[in-house]
Design a protein that fits this description.
Blueprint lengths: L7 E8 L2 H11 L3 E7 L7 E6 L8 E6 L12 E9 L4 H10 L6 E5 L2 E7 L5 E6 L21 E9 L3 H9 L3 E6 L2 E5 L8 E6 L13 E8 L2 H13 L8 E2 L3 E7 L5 E9 L24 H7 L6
Parallel strand pairs: 1-4, 5-8, 9-12, 13-16
Antiparallel strand pairs: 1-13, 2-3, 3-4, 5-9, 6-7, 7-8, 10-11, 11-12, 14-15, 15-16
C-alpha cells in the first residue's frame, strides 16, 4: 500500500465557453483564478485554474474550454460529482446565492451524515457544497464571497461505476480505506491527508456509459509532495500492472497519468513548484502564461483566444 498520496491535487473538466466558465467560478463560487494558460496539447484552447489564494493542491478546479464542444452525457465511468467543503451552517447562504445567480439543479440532501447542496455548473457539471466541520484550510478572502462562508477547497469526488470492486482495490493500494456505506455509495478516506481526502464510489450496475463533452471531468489528480515521491508511486503502479505515462512537466507540477479499471483517468501530480513560479503571488492568474514550447505562438494566441473579463 502506498503512503505518498495526500489527497486530491486538482480536478480538470471541459467547458464550452471560457468567459462563462470564468464568471461562474470567480463571481458565483468566489474562487480565485490562479492561472490563465493554454492546453499543452491544443494551445488554441485555454487552460484555466481556480482555487484558493495560492492555488493550494486540494483546492484547484481547472478547465479546458473548447469552443463548439458538444455536451457530455452523464453515466458510468466518470467523476459524476465534485464536492467542495464549506463551513457548517452556510448552506442557506449558498442556496440563496446560487438561486440569485440562476444556477440550475439545486437540491439539498444528506449523505454520510453531511449536509450537502447539489447544483449544476454552466455546462451541467455535477457539483455539491458540503458542510465540513473543523476544516483548517482558509477560503479565498478577496473575492465576492465572505471568507466565513467561502469554499475551503475540495471535500472529495464521487465516481460513478458499474462495478466498484476493481476501483476499490486500486484506492486501497493508493492508501485509501473504506470507512462507510450509504445506499449505493461507498466512502473511501485518506488518513492524514490535505483535507481533500474523500473518494465516494457510486455503484450503478445498469448505468449507461458516460460520454465526455462540456461539463465532463477529463481527469482527477492526486497529490504527492515532490518528484521523489512521484517516482516511487509510478514504480509501484507499474509493478502492479498499471499502464503509466512517463513523467510530464506541466510547468506548475509534474504529472503522470493512468486509466483506472472503471475507465476514469487518474493523474498523480506534485505539489511543487506551484503557481507562483512564473507570476507574483499577488497577481496570479492575471497575465496569459504560455508553456515554453508554445511561446512563439503568443502573437497569434493573443488575437484568437477569446477575451476573459477579470
Amino acid at each position: 500500500m502506498l503512503d505518498q498520496i495526500k489527497g486530491l491535487h486538482h480536478v480538470t473538466s471541459m467547458a464550452a465557453d471560457a468567459q462563462e466558465n470564468n464568471a461562474f467560478f470567480t463571481n458565483v463560487l468566489g474562487l480565485r483564478r490562479v492561472k490563465k494558460t493554454v492546453n499543452f496539447d491544443a494551445p488554441e484552447v485555454y487552460h484555466l485554474y481556480y482555487g484558493d489564494e495560492a492555488g493550494t493542491p486540494g483546492s484547484v478546479m481547472t478547465y479546458f474550454p473548447f469552443p463548439r464542444i458538444g455536451p457530455g452525457r452523464r453515466g458510468a465511468g466518470e467523476v459524476s460529482e465534485t464536492g467542495f467543503a464549506v463551513p457548517p451552517g452556510t448552506l442557506d447562504f449558498w442556496r440563496d446565492r446560487l438561486e440569485g445567480a440562476g444556477v440550475d439543479g439545486l437540491a439539498e440532501f444528506e449523505a454520510f451524515g453531511e449536509r450537502r447542496l447539489r447544483f449544476h455548473g454552466p455546462d451541467g457539471d455535477g457539483f455539491a457544497l458540503i458542510e465540513t466541520p473543523d476544516d483548517p484550510r482558509e477560503p479565498y478572502a478577496d473575492g465576492p464571497v465572505p471568507a466565513d462562508k467561502g469554499v475551503h477547497g475540495f471535500r472529495g469526488v464521487t465516481m460513478r461505476l458499474r462495478d466498484g470492486a476493481a476501483t476499490s482495490e486500486l484506492l486501497k493500494f493508493m492508501g485509501y480505506r473504506e470507512i462507510a456505506r450509504d445506499g449505493v455509495l461507498i466512502r473511501f478516506a485518506l488518513e492524514g491527508g490535505n483535507g481533500a481526502d474523500i473518494v465516494d464510489l457510486e455503484v450503478l450496475p445498469d448505468a449507461a456509459p458516460a460520454r465526455q463533452g462540456a461539463g465532463s471531468v477529463h481527469h482527477v489528480a492526486f497529490a504527492v509532495a515532490d518528484r521523489a515521491a512521484q517516482v516511487e508511486v509510478r514504480r509501484a503502479l507499474l509493478e502492479a500492472g498499471a499502464h503509466v505515462t512517463p513523467v510530464i512537466d506541466r510547468d506548475y507540477f509534474w504529472a503522470i497519468y493512468f486509466r483506472t479499471p472503471g475507465g476514469i483517468l487518474f493523474e498523480i501530480a506534485t505539489n511543487e513548484p506551484g503557481f507562483a513560479r512564473d507570476e507574483d503571488p499577488a497577481h496570479l492568474g492575471e497575465a496569459l502564461k504560455l508553456p515554453k514550447q508554445h511561446a512563439h505562438l503568443r502573437p497569434q494566441l493573443e488575437k484568437t483566444l477569446p477575451a476573459i473579463a477579470d
